[in-house]
Amino acid sequence: MLVHPRFDPVAISLGPVSIHWYGLMYLAAFALFMGLGRVHARRRPDLGWEGRHIDDLLFYGMLGVIVGGRLGEVLFFQPAYYFANPLEIVKIWKGGMSFHGGFLGVLAAMWLYGRTHARHFWEITDFIAPLVPIGLALGRIGNFINGELWGRPAPAELPWAMIFPWVDELPRHPSQLYQAAGEGLLLFVILWLFAARPRATGAVSAAFLAGYGLLRFVAEFFRTPDPGIFGTLSLGLSTAQWLCVPMIVIGAVMLARTRAR
User: For residue 202, is it left (φ>0), alpha (ψ between -120 and 50) or beta?
Assistant: First the structure.
């Protein structure tokens, strides 16, 4: 059995300025987006993307992730807390970013990019889909360092069961690392290989929707559910799981339609 090492969430302190690990994870995610985007553009020159386009995509995407992710956390998961403490909303370096909110924010940002650069929406999302999971993995590692989003109680004989002392003395699943491995690394490998060959428009986006939705749905069985605006709903599923259901359904339908084309 393991005990969480209780990392200091502050990576670097320079006088009054503190740089948090969580923020560094986001910076690393954005840097990898640029690097992987250029590699993807070179291996698929038929898609017509260049470095300057990827830089623009990153700018739009950053706005979507940060604004959407924070608003999603506020509105979907902890509205009572943030409405009682409105100044906490801007303190994103403390953690608390909703994937589903960030996902909607990125979709809105990509739609806006397409409108201003005359690019088809699915053409954009097909290109960025394989670049996203590595960033998700880094975000979950940031959650682990912060000691947040801990797992459900686990059997004591599980070799990697972990105690989070500030929660209780129960062995728990290190669900942050499960999600980093599943929604992050595994999904990245799947999408990176899937996007290496020409696909029907929307197919890579559909694979991301279905893949992320399914992997997150499964991971939630090992993670202590966030309170959510609905709490634990029918069938004992969490708010996050119910938010994943339309992703799985829409992704599966889109994949079936692209295969038919």
Answer: left
Residues 6+ apart with CB under 8 A from 229: 75, 76, 77, 79, 239
Which residue ranges are tagged as binding site?
Answer: 140
For the whole model, what pTM was predicted?
0.88
Q: How far apart are CA 136 and CA 185, in angstroms?
A: 9
Of the two residues 211 and 76, the one the predictor is more confident about is: 211
Asked if residue 94 has pLDDT above 80, the reply is: no
Burial of 199 (0-12, 13-18, 19+ CB in 10 A): middle
Alpha-carbon gap, residue 137 to 30, rounded angstroms: 12
* 211 Cβ contact list (under 8 Å, min separation 6): 187, 190, 191, 251
| Residue 12 neighbours by CB under 8 Å, 6+ apart | 18, 19
Q: Would you list the DSSP string of 4-69?
A: -----SEEEEETTEEEEHHHHHHHHHHHHHHHHHHHHHHH-GGG---HHHHHHHHHHHHHIIIIIH
CA distances from 53 to 37, 116, 195 (A): 10, 12, 18
Q: Residue 251: which residues within 8 A CB-CB, separation 6 or more? A: 206, 207, 208, 209, 210, 211, 213
